[in-house]
ABC transporter ATP-binding protein
Amino acid sequence: MIAVSDLLKHYPDSSSPIIDQLSLNVIAGQSVSIQGASGCGKSTLLALLAGFEQSSGGTIVIAGHALERLSQEAADSFRMHHLGVIFQQFNLLDCFNVWDNVAFTARLKGNYNASRQQTLLNNLGLADRHKAPVSMLSGGEQQRVAIARALNHLPDVVLADEPTGNLDEQTSDIVSQLLFNYCQEQGAALVVVTHSSDVARRAQTQYRLHQGRLAQE
Ligand SMILES: Nc1ncnc2c1ncn2[C@@H]1O[C@H](COP(=O)(O)OP(=O)(O)OP(=O)(O)O)[C@@H](O)[C@H]1O
Ligand SMILES: [Mg+2]
C-alpha cells in the first residue's frame, strides 16, 4: 500500500538532508509507528507521504500512485480518495462546526453517512459537541475532531502525526485503540508518528527516525 524507496529531502538552508535515503513499506492492514527526537523530520516525512512536500529524490508509491508524477490537481484527488491525514496542528476549518468539519471529506468524496459519523463521534467522546464551532473547543477536543475527520471517509491509508499529543492518558488510550482498530478492521495501512511509547507499542512494526533513516526497534 505504501512503498518508499531511497527517499531524500533537503531543506535549502540545511547542510545535511532531513530525510536521507529512507525506505519504508507498509502493506494493507499493517500499522507502523515512528518515534524520534523533536526536529528529526517525522512531520516532514508524513508531509512527503501525503504529497504536501516535494521530495529531493527517491520514490513514493501509495495505492498505486507515484507521488512525484502527480500534478497539484491529481495530488488533491489522490488525497481525497486514499488518505486520512491527522495533522500535528489539526488544520480544522474554523468556519465550520464539529459535524461539518468531520463530514467535509466524506461529502466531497460522496460516501457521507450520517449514522456512521454519529457513531464515530460518540466513540470519540464528542456526542454532545456536534454543533460547537471548532474554535470553541479545547485542544484535546479539536484533536479528536481531526481524528474523526480523517477516518470518516474510510481512507485506505491513515497518516497520523502525534494523534494523542493533547490528550490525557485515559482518552489517549481510547482514541489510539479506535485508530488502530479502524485500520485493522478496514484493512487500511497506518503510519503513526508519536512521542508516546504506549501508542508506539500498539503498532505491528515500530521504527525510530534518526539521521534521516528509519531503524526498526
Ligand atoms: N519548510 C521548511 N523549510 C525549512 N526547514 C524546515 C521546513 N519544515 C521543517 N523544517 C525543519 O526540518 C526539521 C524537521 O522538522 P519536523 O517538523 O519534520 O520535525 P519533527 O520530527 O516532526 O519534530 P516534532 O517532534 O517537534 O514535531 C526542523 O529542524 C525544521 O525546522
Ligand atoms: Mg512534528
About this structure: The mean pLDDT is 96.
